Structures
1.
Amino acid sequence: GAGVSQSPSNKVTEKGKDVELRCDPISGHTALYWYRQSLGQGLEFLIYFQGNSAPDKSGLPSDRFSAERTGGSVSTLTIQRTQQEDSAVYLCASSPGTSGYTQYFGPGTRLTVL
Amino acid sequence: GNSVTQMEGPVTLSEEAFLTINCTYTATGYPSLFWYVQYPGEGLQLLLKATKADDKGSNKGFEATYRKETTSFHLEKGSVQVSDSAVYFCALSELIQGAQKLVFGQGTRLTINP
């Protein structure tokens, strides 16, 4: 079946605007993860979902970041009032469960904040 | 907290050369260890993994052994090919609220010349 998909693949926005990034996990995968890949910070964990629930939001960089997941499937990462330091590649991964399962990554969304 | 340190790149080798990319980790307990690879223009893919001490992960001619005594998980390949050119990430899994958060090293860019 299809892998993890993310949209858009590229997003250029102006500082101060809000953006929404979408992730479609592999069908049937209950766990979904968001990571960020940036030049200064490398690959860092942001948040994960088990079903529609996000038990730990401490990885989100600031309160401008939020995420939700509906129907145990699609997830949206929203960044409000974007800043230049938000520029990065945002990666989504899914797995069949939580502990002990391989995470499968999507191609990422490259966000550029001007 | 847990962390992963891998050798800085870039690494440039000739085809058929022997490859070693060093990776060491700091962790409480005994995490699972992973090598992920990112080919140009593609998403992160799991290359190999090991879940306990002395386990050897292998795939596509690459190998890595989980060494608890040296807290290491070095990646090796006996004869590299041009198609192995990519960025390689060492990672460990950290349990958070029952889920596996991946903690990544900084990545090592490998270029193989014909």
Note: The mean pLDDT of chain B is 93.
2.
Amino acid sequence: EVQLVESGGGLVQPGGSLRLSCAVSGFTFSSYWMSWVRQAPGKGLEWVANIKHDGSDKYYVESVKGRFTISRDNAKDSLYLQMNSLRAEDTAVYYCARSEYHSFNYWGQGTLVTVSS
Amino acid sequence: QSVLTQPPSVSGAPGQRVTISCTGTSSNIGAGYDVHWYQQAPGTAPKLLIYGTNNRPSGVPDRFSGSKSGTSASLAITGLQAEDEADYYCQAYDSSLSGSYVFGGGTRVTVL
């Protein structure tokens, strides 16, 4: 059974940092692109970043470029999102998702990040 | 403002057919990229409903179908059921920004 479990969310002050993790199981992690997708409270979905199987290519939505870094450890079947210089508008539930054919076919349960003083 | 445009809400009685539109541009749907649809029940994570414009993952009822024409796509739900009450999102790749994926704003389906 495919499982994705996010962790690391919480309350952080504006300008602060947070590192999200996503532990996966049930599939060969190193064979898939992986993504982070977020959803602000009461709002729609927004793709944040993705990373190639081997970590060699990474892409970001414009609003997080230079502040967020996506990474992965294929030996640990884990995906990460380092978030720096956090802003109030980054408040959202962050989902990790497996990418395939430009879609997101498996999702985690999400972890809530709240940026507030 | 989402890159893909969806109606905020649609509704229908049990057993009826409803459709949700998703309008894009020449850099996403109009460029020939596949459209994917997700269903999100309240308080849960999104679930892939339709991929590659008109394909259903295993376990998704055939009451759900997708189509695409030009810069627009549609999701149809036939034989509407109470359990279909949820938010639905379309999504596509967008070539205007490298490696970018875009979503619609979401459509709330209400079963009357």
Note: Chain A has a mean pLDDT of 97.
